[in-house]
Amino acid sequence: MTSRPARAGALSLGRYATYGVLLLLALFAVGPMLVFGFNALKTPSELATSPLGLPAAPQWHNFADAWQEAAMGVGLANSVVVVISTALGVCVISGCAAYAMGRLRVPGSNFLIFYLLVTSALPIQLFLVPLFYLWTNLGLYDNLLGLIIIYWAVFSPFATLLIRSYMVGLPKEYEEAARLDGAGEWKVFARVVLPMVWPGFLTAALIAGLSAYNEFLLAVTFIQSTDKMPVSTAFFAFKSGYTQDYTLISAGGLIMVIPVLVAFLLLQRRFIEGYISSGMTG
């Protein structure tokens, strides 16, 4: 009779310990963001005297000043164009490639898969110099279209493997029935395969879009005009010019982070479910 209360007490103690560990991990993850937000609401003198404390009198105008001084509106608009174009282009390119490798009898498909794995692992720094000269000769340097094309090439290999992992598990009976009814390959892909693998396309679009939004090296290398900079390079240019006013830098950084944070919170369930169900988590 005494074993059950002891066991219940041990389970309660283990549960509280688990909650304590999860709380510490949550503070570790959210703590820097909270400090970042508090610093954005302080004056420079208050930030110097109390970098980790709460703001005594919140300076909400810091966000308006950072928005204007850093041209965050133009940067966010350019990032929206880049993110949407990158996500749509990657879905089209990787969707067609994944359908060809996963559902059609394409010669050398195994070699293509190996090639995509290798290209996904190669660092982009290896191609910066030849790509810079090529883009300059083609007139794509300092052009959002040129940056978007590079993103298509960088993010499509992984997206192709991701979407293909969905397609290889689909039963072929539906496609064969559609072909018997006279449907061509494009109709089979659009009417039969696409509705069943749309979580894979959504996951690929989210990964490509978030990666394009946060990407810095390619953006700072191939975009120089202020009115064409995405938000990552616009914030970098602002930070370089305002190294002494860390309150405005914090406000500008928070403006840059909020859209990604909101998008991920709204779509996190579909993103995680799609990534897990793809079978690429190992």
Automatic annotation (TrEMBL):
Keywords: Cell membrane, Membrane, Transmembrane, Transmembrane helix, Transport. Gene3D superfamilies: MetI-like. It is found in: Cell membrane. Residues 76-267 form the ABC transmembrane type-1 domain. The keyword Membrane applies. The chain crosses the membrane at residues 21-41, 76-100, 112-135, 147-167, 188-213, 246-267. Pfam families: BPD_transp_1 (PF00528). It is a multi-pass membrane protein. CDD domains: TM_PBP2. InterPro entries: MetI-like, MetI-like_sf. Belongs to the binding-protein-dependent transport system permease family. This is Carbohydrate ABC transporter permease. It comes from Nonomuraea antimicrobica. The lineage of its organism: Bacteria, Bacillati, Actinomycetota, Actinomycetes, Streptosporangiales.
